[in-house]
Amino acid sequence: MIQIPGRRAARYDKAFYDDFTASSLRSGEIVLGALLHRYAARSIIDVGCGVGAWLKAAQNLGASSLRGFDGPWVDDSQLLIEPTSFTRISFESADWPDLGKVDLAISLEVAEHLSLTQGKLLVKRLCNAAPVVLFSAAIPHQGGEGHQNEQWQSWWAEIFATQGYRPSLFLRRITWTNAEVSFWYSQNMVVYVDPARAGSLIEPDEMAQPMDVIHPDLYQIRVIKRGRHGRLRRLIDAIRMR
């Protein structure tokens, strides 16, 4: 969870993280429970970790080496991981700390906040760090504060392909109808895999599945509700003009 360009750092204050943490932790327990059941990752990093809810979920599931990276807006007193496991970074800077070599790299709902160039560099850095990357980023018109690089899932898949990584969509069937997993994770998450090191995560029918999808919950929010109200307003305006 990164700071929003042009907004005060206070946007991500204690109240925000208190509200967000419980649902994020539960989503992380379900998603990582399924992933770590198939891929025994012990060392994990999370780039854009916020207060570390997903890393805490990984710890609860048995991961032993955890590192989180995020900006100066994160309050150490709210961290769910040890402060010594947290590193502050500047996302738009070319000078990043070494992410190390780990089993699994996570970056969730972060890349849409970055410039095009830094978004691509984020993918490269994640792939350099781990053979398996759990990645999600907002799709076009998903909406959110400070989004400047909303892209379809297939667009990111092409960026990962330049690093030799292939997508695996097995998490969708586990999370898609699970109300305990926040819909933006279910919609946007893709596991990217280095076939030479973790090819077992790629299923035979992966390419038969659609890459670009919209979750029903987002459809309800963005299309049906807002669209209906928009049509109603236009109808009222038309009546008033008669």
Would you mind describing this structure in some detail?
The structure is a single chain. Helices cover 40% and strands 13% of the residues. By secondary structure, the protein is of the alpha/beta class. The protein folds into two domains: 9-209, Rossmann fold, CATH 3.40.50.150; 212-242.
Reconstruct the topology from this structure.
Blueprint: H1 14-38, E1 43-47, H2 53-60, E2 65-70, E3 86-88, E4 104-108, H3 116-129, E5 132-136, H4 153-161, E6 166-168, H5 170-175, H6 183-188, E7 190-193, H7 195-198, H8 216-241
Parallel strand pairs: 1-2, 1-4, 2-3, 4-5
Antiparallel strand pairs: 5-7, 6-7
Describe the structure concisely for a colleague.
By secondary structure, the protein is α/β, with parallel strands linked by helices. 40% of the residues lie in helices and 13% in strands.
